[in-house]
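[Q] Does anyone have a clean structure-token version of this?
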Amino acid sequence: MSQENQATTYGNAAQAGYATIPQGGLPQYTEAWALIEAARRMAEATAAENAKEKMREALRLNWRLWTIFQVELTTGESYVSEDVRMNMLTLCKYIDQHTVGALAEPTMEKIEVLVNINRDIAGGLLDGLKRTVEEVENTHTLEHAGDEGAEQASAQLHISVDKTI
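[A] Here you go.
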């Protein structure tokens, strides 16, 4: 994406209803953020004045997100193991089927199922990201034991991940 397109896309974040959007460079964090944002919108929709309409909007947003995951898992080279890829594709199929039923007759119970799935997957992504950063931090620290610059870099990395998560 060109810088001009990024500025336009990110510049419209407030118009799209996003208070904040993640910075690039951490795909796992971006995926987790998107799942949490979709979960938030679905949960809020159940309490809206025109709940059925808002629930359908939130369901369609969530469905688009899961379609993106499905496409990423089925085209090109996957960055996850074959077991994880197959489990995620099975979950995508479930999301598709459940969403179709929820769109036909949206209820708080049907929305809650999707909200919980999104939150659980997002939590797993964030836990994995945190473990990866800790491993990199430990490896880097061991490689440069006694190196003052390495200690400062490690501290900065830790602070930046804590702020992100």
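[Q] Thanks! Anything notable?
[A] The chain has one domain: 24-164.
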